[in-house]
User: What shape does this take?
Amino acid sequence: EMQLVESGGGLVQPGGSLRLSCSASGFTFRTYAMSWVRQAPGKGLEYVSAISHNGDRTYYADSVKGRFTISRDNSKNTLYLQMSSLRTEDTAVYYCVGRPVAGTSRRLDPWGQGTLVTVSS
Amino acid sequence: QSALTQARSVSGSPGQSVTISCTGTSSDVGGYNYVSWYQQYPGKAPQVVIYDVSQRPSGVPDRFSGSKSGNTASLTISGLQAEDEADYYCCSYGGSYNPYVFGTGTKVTVL
Assistant: This one.
């Protein structure tokens, strides 16, 4: 069974930093592009960041550019999101999401269960 | 990049059909055949019910169907069931520089 498990969320003060991790199992991690999608409380989904299957290309939404860094370690089947200069508006559940690079489909699947990040003083 | 536009809510009685629309631009919905739809129950992660406009993953009931015309995509749930009550989000691929954009989300209520 394909599985993604996020960790590292928690309460952090404005201006602080946090690193999220996402551990993958049940599929060949190095053949998947990976993304982070977040959802603020009671709000919709926002595409935050992405990294190619081999890590040579990244993408950041304007809302996090310059503050967040996405990376991956294919030897450990793990995706990361380093978040710094956190703002109250970064409060959200952060989902780790995969997309197979083989074929032409652009479907986002699988999804992790999410980890809550709360930025508050 | 602006979110795709969806109605806030739709409702229907069991057995009826409901259709959710998702309006974007020629840079996303209209430019690619890569629209997907995600179902989300409260407190749970989203899961794909339709991808690449009209493809259904294995395990998703065939009462879920998708289509697209111009800059607008649609999700139709036929034979509505109580378990279909959830939030639904459309999502479109938007090219290398803006890979994905989500819709604003639609709450489906089964009366």
